[in-house]
């Protein structure tokens, strides 16, 4: 595996090396390959800076494309290889510390601008060459005028042997002479060409100034002009030329003839069009690509007052299954068919469909009434996906999830619109898929905040932004404090104190829950030791104990047992001072491999509590096989006991659970105790310990020590 370069300059040089190796074989240069690499390095640096610039500057990328022509990279293959290198390696080597999705979109736009700059520079180079010919023709006007009597043979040789088309006409436009190159370009005989008048050669694509320049020349008001002009051939095809027309004067300086020099640029123009198409269209489906779509979206969002836009962001449901089961070739054919159907849905003015990549497509509509039109467009797309698609003899059902964003132009950037559409699409997918949802600013804000918290989690742990609060566990029989549950909090710099429900699921998703859980366990065990030392060690009623929650991810981590042993030994705390709480849902259907670490911990003397008991619908008979010593009854069973009289059904349920637990030699802890009547009822029912706001809210460790001292003095 190749080692990654150390720093930005190393990565930049690596990119320049790859670029030079790809392009050098098709470059007409006398330089060596290392010398050629030295020429490309500053161009690579300009691309890198343009990639990471705050605002997109297409002129910088155009300048790089033009510089390629200056470095003799004029072969179309050189441009093709350059675009391939930029597409594959620019973001990889020069896009460090940036949003990959944004950088890939920026890279695609840079490629398009480079291709445009390359084509423009190549054209200007050709024009310069033609201009040189025109200047030579102007300088030779006297020679041409005298060629009738002094150098007719030499002029005829140049005239007939020229590689470009040459024609001479009078000032009325009547063609007098043409050379062989011109007849071949038009596909006409000499006689046919000379029977034409220059004024007849109009074309719909003529630039507005073309015929104005012609009239000025034949009136003697200008000596020459240069334009890009199209001509119709007899077979209906179009001939594109670089046309230079010069005025020929007689010995007295009076205008006599017009001299036309034509270079056939049809193939070059087709190449430029192909490069433009390839830079703006998806190679697989032929739809506009991400770069082209962003151009259209930017234009739609910058439209004038009263204009609106509507965007549908489509992601196919279950497309990965098709790739995994039938292969990527089948997946590609499926995407092509989907693209064809989507294209048929967006045929009205102001509508377009593009492929962003993978199985993600977008449809855009613009105009004054997009609120209604975008809903209809989404409906057409959903209907278009209803019919099965036949791939390799299999009928595949295709479904999709669509996020819709609609609004007035000028209020949001393209990136903000696409982000909102992406978020909304995933909301539709989370709701079961095969549906479309409308963007909701509040839902967007929640997702953005969630993403921000997720990305901030690792640094927050390193910066020490987490802290622990402790909620007392009270013995119902005598009201003494027997320990506490450790509850982690996040002191976020912007959002303030966040409860575990805000960030524990994110830590689970990212895997950070393992180091975070290890830190919580270490801090809690150290606090338990301090409590024991301040409380005078173990008393007759037993030592203070700390309860720490374990997530399902931690249960599956191979280092759970060893980490726990190491933390207890370093703190000098006996295993019986620790109780690990595991949710009932995490142990439903657990096999022996999952239970083995818990059994080892229980054998060491660590208590295992089954948290939120009663919410997971587990089989009560399974309690016998679980290595638990405590049941923590979920608060939903005891909420009715806050009022008098309590629901008799709830009383019977709790009484039955307590009886069953005690028969299995399990202690019962109750959460969410908020009133004295509730606490008394639970004591009568035989519950062992309780926690809740009635006793104390979660707080700093010193509060528990004070409560324990009050119990001891009482």
TrEMBL record:
Residues 307-441 form the GGDEF domain. This is Bifunctional diguanylate cyclase/phosphodiesterase. CDD domains: EAL, GGDEF, PAS. Residues 450-712 form the EAL domain. InterPro entries: Biofilm_reg_signaling (IPR052155), EAL_dom (IPR001633), EAL_sf (IPR035919), GGDEF_dom (IPR000160), Nucleotide_cyclase (IPR029787), PAC (IPR001610), PAS (IPR000014), PAS-assoc_C (IPR000700). Residues 151-221 form the PAS domain. Residues 225-277 form the PAC domain.
